Amino acid sequence: MSVTVDGDNSGSVPERGRTRWIPRGPQPEKVPALVGTACTLIGLIDIVAGVFPRFRASRMHAVAEVLPGTLGPLSAALSLSAGVLLLLLAHGLKRNKRRAWRAAVVLLPLGAAAQFAWRHSVTGVVLSLALLALLVRHRDQFAALPDPRSRWRALANFVLMGAGSLVLGLVIVSAHPRRVVGSPSLTDRLEHVLYGLFGFEGPVSYTGNTDWTVGYSLGALGMLTALTTAYLAFRPEHPAARLTEDDEARLRALLERHGARDSLGHFALRRDKGVVFSPSGKAAVCYRVVSGVMLASGDPIGDVEAWPGAIERFMDEAKAHSWSPAVMGCSETGGQVWTRETGLDALELGDEAIVDVADFSLSGRAMRNVRQMVKRIERGGYTTKVRRVRDLSDGELARIRRAAEDWRGTDTERGFSMALGRIGGPGDGDAVIATAHKDDSDSPGDPDRPGGPDGTGTGTGTGTDSPYGDLKAIIHFVPWGSDGMSLELMRRDRSADPGMNELLIVAALQQAPRLGITRISLNFAMFRAALARGEKIGAGPVLRMWRGLLVFLSRWFQIESLYKFNAKFQPRWEPRFVVYRKSSDLPRIGFAAMQAEGFVNLSLPIPRFLARRFRRDDSGPRAHRAPGPAEQEIRAA
What we know:
The chain is of the alpha+beta class. 45% of the residues lie in helices and 15% in strands. It is built from 21 helices and 14 strands. It has helices spanning 31-51, 53-56, 59-64, 76-94, 98-119, 122-137, 152-174, 186-197, 210-234, 245-258, 307-321, 332-342, 368-379, 394-406, 500-515, 528-534, 541-553, 560-567, 586-597, 608-614, 629-636; strands at residues 2-5, 18-21, 274-277, 283-290, 293-297, 301-302, 324-330, 345-356, 383-388, 432-437, 471-480, 484-492, 519-526, 572-580. The radius of gyration is 32 Å and the shape is globular.
């Protein structure tokens, strides 16, 4: 801060306009980042000092000895332990976590006492206490609540800390080449590390006091791994927010009144999301916390006039836990409300493909490829059925669920913003399922083949030993108000002919009027505008370069393929946006979104047979229902 002095009471005439600089401390909101960065740097210095003997005897270590957290000429084990602890604390301090603040407040006085007792370093004590005073003065900046956690994190900590300790221990064992007795092999050194982590002597020997240095260092790493794992395993659980039965009932009531506004509304009923309601209860925002990002998807649910109240609750929750707020896939209206109410920024993410049933037709040159593909598959003996979930029998619904799970190409279910994660759950009777069938025992053109020309046939013969009967492909739609539906899932048997998805989407569009459907939302095409404009004549070099990068990334992510698939059906495109706080958050938000969508999995894999055994049954008991139109036709026959 600067102050301009225009006069002086001493009688002397000061120089007019002279500026006096008065030093001030850091801005309170920047203290967490400052302290976290300091802990990171000091922790790294401590680790290097504990591992490499030359560094401990260098001029750099003379500077490091007076920094908080280092313990002077104590053993390398203590320096190593302090460095690891500071690194563990640094991220929590940067995120304003209260528990990290408490740990730092305890650790810094201990470090200062050790500095004074072992090195009599006044400078080290002063720096430690200065950092402690900074933490105490700005303690109100460290008020964030803990993140959701479970005891599975203890297992993850054991694996990660164990692997890190193994690598770091191998470096420690190899950092004294002049004092090693003999020429131990890599296997001997690895065995020595494993023994040392558990506090035993290994096969590698050293001259002088190096044996003690290496032994204490390895023992300290093993102790830290054990203690942090035990702490995470026995501390109280704080599970992530999940939809309760009451939350789901309230959301369904809002969707019944306002669900026609957003095609992503029904996906708010995912059971792995939390929800915050507006004070009036007329609007809600559903979210999931991933890697410190509070990630919402789509627009708020409910009355637009009540959105600001729900958004305010969302932002308060993010602030209380020091989460980064973000919204994926909101509409233009939703983006305007989010940015107006919160001061966040919005960036166009892509476009949603929406097909108006009244305008859809297979005729015309633009639809020639789809038309020919559908005709070819139909000549191959495939038939389709398009029905509401409530019109399916229990046995057929169970068969469809099993096929959808077994035909999934990945070990984990993908999808977050446009995925429900279940088929035929309680209250989802209005969802629509389109299925493709082929009875291999019949020849093409058999008049007794299941499935009539109207797509509602219900033949019972399978003609195959497959556990799925004659089922070859599935498409699942969720309700979008009373007259629309959104694509949620596409699965097919790997042995089925190509083009199953096109066949079922065309069947759903053709049978939509019978179900009272006037609009269908297909897949979301990320960066569609860049792909479309970049391939046109006259596109500039920057746009062409951006499109080339997207095409390159399409080798691993469905970017270009989804755009081209959606474009086959001549949809209208509705832009979708990502809302974020600052540009530096975008990489973190993108990574969190990839985790939420299932493209990146950082959790420990669980065998599929265990996942099936312990997976929560989202289907639940099915209520008694009246027979659907297809069953009525069979009974009448």
